[in-house]
Design goal:
mainly alpha, 0% strand, disordered C terminus
């Protein structure tokens, strides 16, 4: 974008900066949500809750399916692989 375009868009700089920040926060939240190690930890906790009798089989199956879907997505997309070090 040329100098004239930058000058014309200057009043929108705070909005553009805010949108960038929101995108960064959403990307990090999604990375953490689909991080395979985090999902595996939640699966282990879920199994502990089942063994302890805190939840029944039906609730376990429902939550396990959700977590396995997240794990599958995380493994396919590589979520959590970069530990947030790329920008």
């Amino acid at each position: 974008m040329g100098l004239i375009g930058e000058v014309l868009l200057l009043p929108f700089a705070p909005v553009r900066g805010s949108l960038w920040a929101v995108r960064q926060v959403l990307a990090e939240a999604e990375r953490q949500y689909y991080d395979p190690s985090a999902v595996r930890a939640e699966l282990a906790l879920l199994e502990q809750r089942l063994v302890a009798g805190e939840i029944d089989e039906e609730e376990f199956d429902r939550q396990e399916d959700e977590l396995l879907d997240r794990l599958d997505i995380g493994l396919r997309t590589g979520a959590g692989a970069d530990n947030g070090t790329t920008g």
